[in-house]
Amino acid sequence: MTAEPSETYTDPAAAVLRRAQALVADYGTAPVKAWKDKNPGALAVGHLPIYTPRALLEAIGVLPVAIYGAGDKDIIRGDSYFQSYICHIPRSTIELGLTGMLDSLDGMIFPAICDVIRNLSGMWQMLFPQKWAAYLDLPQNFRPEVGGRFYQLELKRMARELHARGAKALTDEGLRAAIKDENRRRVALDKLAALRRDASWRVPASEAYLVTRAGGAISAREHAALVEEYVAAADMRTGQPKDNVRVVLVGSFCEQPPFGLIKSLERAGCDIISDDLQLGLDYLEGMIDEAGSPLDALVAAFLHKGKATASRYIGEGTKGAALLAQVKRAKADGVIFAAASFCDPALLDQPMLEAACEGAGVPFTSFKYAENTGQFQVIREQAGAFSDAVRLWESAA
Amino acid sequence: MSLVTIGSKPNKGGVAATEGSTVTVPVTKDASQQRQKRMIANHFDRLSTAKEDGKKVAYTFVPGNLTELMGAFEMLPVLPEINALQSGMRGKSGAYISEAERGGHSEDVCSYVKCDIGMLRTGNVGPTGKTLPKPDLLLLSYTGCFTFMKWFELLKAEYDCPVVMLHVPYQADGQITPEMRQYVVDQLKSDVIPQMEQITGRKLDLDKLSEQLGRSRRAEDALVKVWESAQNKPSPIDGYFGGVYYIGPIFSAFRGSEDAVAYYEELLAEVDERIKTGEGPMTPAGVMNNQKYRLVVEGPPSWTHFNEFWNMFSNEGAIAVASTYTRVGGLYDQGFRHDPQDPLGTLADYCLGCYTNRSLPSRIDLLEKYIKSYSADGFLINSVKSCNSFSAGQLMILRELEKRTGVPGAFVESDLVDPRYFGKANIENRLQSYLQMLEARRLGNIASSGSSPAVIGSAP
User: Fold this and answer.
1) A123 and B145 in contact by Cβ < 8 A?
2) What ipTM goes with this model?
């Protein structure tokens, strides 16, 4: 993945963008190595999308490492494990594992997102028996005394198993400190989101994506600092608003679109004001409570502040209401549904979300991609036509 | 002897019509089959008058179904998966799927869901030709399949009724922990039962539930003996194609009923009789006594071409001695029985233990066990595009089973109810080549060790 600085070398954000670029290069292996060198004997654990409570891992001295597949890397061995009608991220993740790219990791967490990632957890157990592997069954019952209780026991189990492999024991003190760092990241990401809403021409989505993704293999505290630095630098940029349409991008929460695809949407005249890319780092709406039992607070944050996304059961309220609220908050002109091919959660969700948009008069368009999609021209043309149509529609209204 | 068809297609004077071919065969319909047919017809009759009769209707799923609990509340279940597969067998699913795709549903996702949505949008007429009643409750048992959750979110938008979720944790490490069990029991107490009480206006009668569970146990005992009868040579049953009929009552509306007990006891008596006489099971091509190849099958059948697929096996003398699809609604042959003494705990154990709720390593262990205990010559994986719960990881299952057992596997691809994904010639060629290879191995022309597994299909 490469990010092109949006302006010249005098861009105030150029330096922080270069650092972010280095952090995501080679699937985040460099920061993991640097962290392990600095913390001999400490563990690093990978986690697949979407949500993993990274604060819990940091509390026991484990570096959480977000794994988003292998992008456009050639897949040779991974393909032999999956039929053609299964999405790309499991095969590229296996490819990374089998080619040694994940050797620096001491374990992997597979959070509940879909049947493919779930089954991948079992495959991982068999392919890498010497490494720790855990399926994290995120509760779909959101009563604290029911789903919350179960989730808390799941978290304790993970902490206990990692402790047996050399991590620190889970303590209230450690978790409280990790939550504080996680909240700092939350504040920084909220500032980034606000700048995107208020001055999108200063924060291209491709940069916001890069800066957010850069947090995948560093601590929350370091990531918060990086995001804060970027926001401050980007806010110093001058320039004028572009005649682009403002869109919300939905459906890309797991397998990530190629970086070039995000750039293509921008070039097609779509300012992505809000999205569900990198949802794992940006899953909670609001802060984790810093008072009381930190484990209770971590659990409560998931139960009550988790974003409405396709892998989370929406039992209360209307399906699509959260998306419409997101559109309103972003002052968006429309929605782009971008789902990975064969992504069950996103594609099964899409008709319901489209219906919500139709009901609210929000224009939308949709397409599919794979993480290794190499040709963006068709998507760019589609997004361009959508952008033109929205502008014409608005001017006619 | 009369000329009838095996399966749900209507009896048309001995013409067993399948999509693409017509076969006329003399087939005897066993008394148990006739009983099952009556049971199903009666159930759909009850559904058609449910509103007039004041009965409440719950839509729910096969894996992790709470039939005894619904029975205790005298609720009538409707199973959208069964409706979808019936639509597939009746040749209607293609049009239903097209209808759903025209409405914005992706070609990439589960065809059961699209078939159900399409059926709903074109009148919701069930397999007996009568309109299905609207649900009073969507009972979302989230067991072994993520898509179930999305399915009922979609249906929630179509019906004005409550949804109650039962989240069943996944057996990721191959075991049911006390925490998982407690979580399911807690949800039954805090969510599912109160919702049923509210809808039906009656309190749960635990004694009534226990009585149902006791009857479930009796039916389960008989079903296990039916499964295990396939260890005989010749096998008196087909454990896959025939097996899907055997699971009909216990996986759907009848577990816990006297009807189910009577059905399974009658079925077992018929199977015992066939063991005594050395007779094989009934197939669309007649009684199958010539059993050349004993296979274990992983994955659901392709319902749109069910008889055609079955004929491919029986024409070659291949019989399925065990299958995993017939365990999606309960793994009774691994020891589980509903326990009337612990009504809620046993419902939790049942939900947690369904086949697709087991980890991939556990599934492989089970298949290995079947291959060995049923003296299988080979195994076939029918990988269906629709079902990632089954399909993701099946290529690893293939290679691991070959490594462990030295028994070669075959791999074919199709779909549940989308007829566009059934390539008859391709599947038939693969199956025939595979069986020829088994024959060659038997004759000693191919080494029988696991060192050089012969694989048909797309496996590496």
Assistant:
1) no
2) 0.94
